[in-house]
Amino acid sequence: PSRAFHGNNRLLTSQIVSHYESINQGEKEVPEYFNFASDVLDKWTQLEKAGRKPANPAFWWVNEKGDEVKWSFEEFGSLSKKTANVLSEACGLQRGDRIVAILPRVPEWWLLNVACMRAGIIFFPGTSQLTAKDILYRLQASKAKCIVTNDALAPAVESVLSGSQFLKSKLLVGQGSRDGWLNFKELL
């Protein structure tokens, strides 16, 4: 299966390179607006549905325990749309608003990233090694209206929230719940 996956990947890569070469040579126009979520992910979903693209995973994540998450283009697109709805409806974010995500590289990190592209929300990633002082600096400098973190990092975030005047919502990725936090998995 991995040999077939990599072989198909080369085919798709050559198609992408060919597309960009035709733009560089003036054969195709550069789009005025480009959105990875709609211009790439959704297009590949259409190709997959029409049988014109093999059903390879769009996203394949494996952790150190061997747990896997595998999404097709259609699944990844659908989940990113749902995530964009969570950000705009439950969190009250609009195009141009900023979100700080302090998460390890879990599947939700990529969902949030693509959902922000889809919705025009500015995504500020932060490593899970940030200190409370680092978190406060990022919240103040970015003027973020939303912060996303997990159960383990939420206490560090909460310790500096009084210093963040722009924050409107807090989104928790994980199994637990905390007072004043929205639970991502429940909302999704």
Automatic annotation (TrEMBL):
Any single GO BP term: acyl-CoA metabolic process
Keyword flag Plastid: no
Annotated keywords: ATP-binding, Fatty acid metabolism, Ligase, Lipid metabolism, Nucleotide-binding
Reaction catalysis annotation: a medium-chain fatty acid + ATP + CoA = a medium-chain fatty acyl-CoA + AMP + diphosphate
GO molecular function: ATP binding; fatty-acyl-CoA synthase activity; medium-chain fatty acid-CoA ligase activity
Highest taxon of the lineage: Eukaryota
Enzyme class: ligase
Enzyme Commission no: 6.2.1.2
Entry's Gene Ontology cellular component terms: mitochondrial matrix
Family as reported in the entry's similarity comment: Belongs to the ATP-dependent AMP-binding enzyme family.
Name of protein: medium-chain acyl-CoA ligase
UniProt gene name: Acsm3_3
